[in-house]
Amino acid sequence: PALVRGSRQAFASDMARMVEALRATPPGDAAASVMVAGDPEYRCEDERRVHGIPLAPKLGRQLRDICARA
After folding, report:
1. d(Cα 19, Cα 37) in Å, to the nearest integer?
2. Which three-class secondary structure state does DSSP give residue 21?
3. Is this prediction's pTM over 0.85?
4. 8 Å CB contact between 8 and 1
5. pLDDT (tens digit, 9 = 90+) per residue, 10-39?
6. How large is the greatest C-alpha to C-alpha distance in the chain, in angstroms?
């Protein structure tokens, strides 16, 4: 970053302004929001922190069986 903009702080400031401008852009689909790199992953993390990590039924059964034997 420092090579591109002179300092890490200047680069971070530029990136923050760019992200802010992108998020302020009206979305092409009114039902969606404008996202930047990492946004889908952050949303997924937030969802999983609240509701847990989804497991396939078979894997859930296998894990319960393992726990029952421990």
Report:
1. 9
2. helix
3. no
4. yes
5. 889 999 999 999 999 999 998 888 999 999
6. 59
